[in-house]
Amino acid sequence: RPPNPAPKLLECWREVYAEVRRHVTGRLAIGGKSMGGRMASLLADELGADALVCLGYPFYAVGKPEKPRVEHLAGLQTRTLIVQGERDALGNRAAVEAYDLSPSIEVFWLVAGDHDLKPLKASGFSHEQHLAAAAGRVAEFLQ
User: Fold this and answer.
1) 58 within domain boundaries
2) What is the CATH number for 105?
3) Would you call 29 helix, strand, or coil by DSSP?
4) CA distances (Å), 82 to each of 18, 24, 78, 96, 106, in order?
5) Quick one: CA dihedral 120, 121, 124, 125, positive or negative?
6) Are the CB atoms for 37 and 31 separated by under 8 Å?
7) Is 1 inside any structural domain?
8) What DSSP string describes 61-115?
């Protein structure tokens, strides 16, 4: 079943962020995997999040690299980490490195990783190694 329309997802993000913010007095980062990260990126500046973490960011729809959804990423002010597989079908390294992304965005590449950060067996890396590397980089980023 398809996800809810973007306006509904964004409104849900606003509600959840407001509720969490009432209980968190310190720094608060937001983020998500794939579409969850994209929705968070659309609201990070508006919400005043301290940081944004996206895993497997959908820079374009499957099979549509000629229609990137990156315009808002050029002006993003929130400190951002995107963990991306080099061969992600929704944003491979060659395509993403050609985009004009905000200087506040860091992309952490996982060798031969797909949209779920799973590497090709021939790469010599395991999925567990990639997940551990991603978790380590996210933890460092949030310090």
Assistant:
1) yes
2) 3.40.50.1820
3) strand
4) 24, 24, 12, 11, 6
5) positive
6) yes
7) no
8) -TT-TTS---GGGGS--S-EEEEEETT-TTS-HHHHTTS---TTEEEEEETTB-T
User: 30: part of which helix (H) or strand (E)?
Assistant: strand 29-33
In a domain, 80, yes or no: yes
End-to-end alpha-carbon separation of the chain, Å? 37
Give per-residue pLDDT as tens, 26-84. Answer: 999 999 999 999 999 999 999 999 999 999 999 999 999 999 999 999 999 999 999 99
Asked if 91 contacts 117 with a C-beta cutoff of 8 angstroms, the reply is no
pLDDT digit string, tens, across residues 78-119:
999 999 999 999 999 999 999 999 999 999 999 999 999 999
If one counts the domains in the chain, the total is 1
> Which residue segment(s) compose the domain that 63 sits in?
6-141
Q: Give the pLDDT confidence score for residue 43 in this predicted structure.
A: 98
On whether residue 73 sits in a domain, the answer given is yes
